[in-house]
Design a protein that fits this description.
By secondary structure, the protein is mainly alpha-helical. The chain has 14 helices and no strands.
């Protein structure tokens, strides 16, 4: 415990240092203009780190697989389908596209409704196992992606630019009002989810063991999966999809913290996520001078890390 506590202090010290450097580096006296805008970006990155780290660790515990991420459920694909469909039928100048608040609530509401209906249909009374749910999620995600690609082929090239802006996560044009709305939602969802953290320590032992130890497995898993969907929906609607981010921070937390306690794993993953996002955004702005986006860098390293995990898993077997 002392070792893990020390590691947590070190990670959050680095996270705080990264935030301070990002906020204050090269301001050149433009405090009134630059500092508030940087602060909004930092808050958005912290909220994204909290949402995706929490959701990924919980999802992997429920699935008993450290390679799967919540994106396998098709929420990212649904987000792109929503954006593509709206722009295809209404145009990029429609109020639903231009008003970021309306767009945010439509996307969050649709993704949460999709997850709720999916979980309610497939997990009612424990009729189907979690892996069947994952299989259906993969199929639906592929279906959504296929429709999105089809519409993107037909769409006007000028309108496609608006769709392309939403295909990759970006912190450069985050709306300040949405950040505060997301902040309130995430705080509420996090508080609800934290009440079930102690159950995850037992759920990680497997369904039969959890039931024998008195855990209401089916109802707890369903609630946690809905919370995962809410977290991913908020983060995706706020900044866009980041496919491999959760995979990276969750597995780094597993390797860095030698514990089964999810309170430590989730807290550590959040700290690692904040360092990765804030540090990565600083690199994008100062080294690459906005020639790329943070999501492209994360997906590149995440893809390499994913291959490494697959090779490591195959060797262990």
């Amino acid at each position: 415990m002392r070792s893990n506590s020390g590691k947590l202090k070190m990670i959050y010290s680095l996270a705080a240092l990264a935030c301070v450097i990002y906020l204050l580096h090269d301001l050149n006296g433009s405090f009134d203009y630059a500092l508030p805008r940087r602060l909004i970006k930092v808050i958005a990155m912290i909220l994204t780190g909290i949402s995706i780290a929490f959701a990924t660790v919980v999802f992997q515990t429920i699935a008993h697989n450290k390679i799967l991420t919540p994106s396998i459920m098709g929420l990212d694909s649904l987000y792109l389908l929503l954006q593509t469909t709206i722009i295809f039928f209404l145009g990029s100048t429609h109020v639903v596209v231009m008003d970021k608040k309306i767009n945010f609530f439509i996307c969050v509401g649709a993704m949460i409704l999709f997850a709720f209906l999916l979980y309610n249909a497939l997990m009612k009374n424990g009729k189907y196992p979690v892996y069947f749910l994952l299989l259906v999620g993969i199929i639906l995600g592929t279906f959504f992606s296929s429709i999105s690609t089809f519409l993107q082929v037909l769409i006007d090239p000028n309108e496609f630019l608006s769709v392309q802006d939403r295909m990759f996560a970006s912190f450069n044009n985050v709306n300040a009002d949405l950040v505060w709305i997301a902040f309130g939602l995430i705080i509420v969802v996090f508080a609800i989810g934290w009440r079930y953290i102690r159950y995850l320590d037992v759920i990680s032992l497997g369904r039969e063991n959890a039931i024998n130890l008195g855990i209401p497995y089916d109802s707890t898993v369903k609630k946690m999966l809905i919370l995962v969907a809410v977290f991913i929906a908020i983060a995706t609607a706020l900044v866009g999809p980041i496919t491999f981010f959760g995979l990276i921070v969750a597995n780094l937390a597993y390797q860095f913290f030698n514990t089964y306690k999810h309170s430590i794993l989730i807290t550590g993953a959040i700290g690692i996520g904040i360092i990765a996002l804030v540090g990565g955004q600083w690199v994008v702005e100062r080294i690459f001078t906005f020639s790329t986006t943070l999501s492209v860098i994360i997906n590149f390293f995440g893809g390499v890390y994913f291959i490494y995990l697959l090779l490591k898993e195959s060797r262990s077997n």
